[in-house]
Amino acid sequence: MNALQPYYNGGIGSGSGSDFLYVLLPVLLSILFVAIITALIIGIVCYVFNAIGLYTMAKNRNLDHAWLAWIPIASSYLTGELINDDVSIGSMHIPYAKIFLPLSPFAFALIMSILGLIPVLGTVFIILISLALSFYQCTALFWLFSIYSKTHRVLFLVLSIIFPFMGPIFIFIIRNKEGYDERHPEPEEILEVNYDSKSIIALSLGIFSILTCIPYLGASAIIGGVGLIFAMIAMKEQKALGRPSGMALAGLICSIVGLALALLVLIACVACVGIGATGLFNGMFNNMSNGISNGTYY
Question: Fewest CB atoms within 10 A around its CB: which of 96, 161, 183, 287?
Fold first, then answer.
């Protein structure tokens, strides 16, 4: 008996339904491929526009480490510096934007994983916290637009919310404008911080990288890498100022541990996939060999 006989004369894969599926599947895969490529291109363009915009703003303001604009997570820290470490909602001023902006998404992910274990009520809290976080980030973006383009700040913010890819484009457009913060007429005084924000971020990212090394492997490696960068910058700055660098050192150690764990988990995953693929191909080869020897494929 021919091994392919089941696929003919009313067997598997026959009939109008299966023929339609075989015709439709390549079309769907092609559409999916085009969508992924398009999203990837848009993401890269937005990343470049956002990085160039923040980098130029930071250079014009003579901020230290303007190159952080090119590093994910760290660019949010730079945004906090550009808005003078202050997210204002009405008359209420929320300080420490340099810490909250880069760390809040990871804190939310950690809280969400815990609240996800609570039925119903946990979902409600997740929705409320996500709305609050989105509002905070939109308010920070509003003040960035306000400092560099007060006339169009509302329009820029609304379009950025409706079409998220527009935000980086607007940042790129206003990058060379002179900034003025109506909340703080003398921004150079606001930039003098009395807390070690880089060390706090380094330690927090190091801890996050350790906690997420298994559930979020790729994110853990990125978080650990960024934490390592902040730790090295913080240690250098604290030593130059003659201040203790213990927190920065702790962030350095935690980031290295997080990176090492992420690497070990990645190696283990690759090994498991390799072993599984090897077993699968060996089984297929053995079945084919047995079929040939038994005359099944003839």
Answer: 287
Q: Are residues 156 and 211 in the same domain?
A: no
Whether residue 205 sits in one domain with residue 119: no
As a three-state string, the secondary structure of 184-233 is: CCCHHHHCCCCCCHHHHHHHHHHHHHHHCCCCCHHHHHHHHHHHHHHHHH
In sequence order, the 6+-apart residues with CB closer than 8 A to the CB of 146 are 153, 181, 182
Which helix (H) or strand (E) element contains residue 86? strand 86-89
Asked which of 195, 219, 234 is the last residue of a domain, the reply is 195
Q: What is the pTM of this model?
A: 0.79
Would you say residue 4 lies in a domain? no
- Nearest of 167, 153, 166, 151 to residue 76 by alpha carbon: 167
Give the domain extent around 152. Answer: 14-195
